[in-house]
Amino acid sequence: MQADLFDIDAPHFNGPAYSPQHDHVRLTGQIKRVYNVMASHKWYTLDEIAGLTGDPHASISAQLRHLRKERFGSHTIDKRPRGDRANGLWEYCLDPVTNQSLAVTNPKMEPLKP
Q1: Which is more confidently placed, 104 or 42?
Q2: 50 φ, ψ to 5°?
Q3: Between the CA of residue 37 and those of 9, 11, 48, 52, what are the distances in Å?
Q4: Which of 22, 48, 101, 112 counts the most CB atoms within 10 A of its CB?
Q5: Are 5 and 110 in contact (CB under 8 A)?
Q6: Do 71 and 12 form a contact (C-beta atoms < 8 A)?
Q7: Is 80 helix (H, G, I), strand (E, B) or coil?
Q8: Any bridge partners for residue 80, and if so which?
């Protein structure tokens, strides 16, 4: 059985500065907000995701990396330049096939209601 990505009690996060009592609830909220935006399968820049979630760019980037990891669902997050590649602006999109297969096993991954 697959672990629930948003189960507040599941030990997902790690790292040298990670403290479950201080960070787990905050990081679980971040990854859920980022996932809910990306579940639309539209292309977003970090700035656009930040505008929708209220989370900092560095946190969003970290959560996009987490979503690619096996323990967070092994999602495919596509990345491409937006506009002129020389400008260094990137946009990201959650692959719909990855999302569809996970949504079947994890009904809590529905987008948040406004």
Answers
A1: 42
A2: -60, -40
A3: 23, 23, 10, 7
A4: 48
A5: no
A6: yes
A7: strand
A8: 91
CATH number of 23-104: 1.10.10.10
The one-letter amino acid at 12? H
Distance CA 92, CA 45 (A): 6
Q: Which two tokens stand for residue 39?
A: 């579940």
Nearest to 73 by CA among 27, 5, 23, 25: 5
Instruction: Note the pLDDT tens digit of each residue in 1-45.
Output: 344 555 555 557 888 888 888 888 899 999 999 999 999 999 999
**pLDDT number for residue 104:** 37
pLDDT score recorded for residue 98: 57
Domain ranges of the chain: 23-104
Copy the structure tokens of residue 61: 């980037």
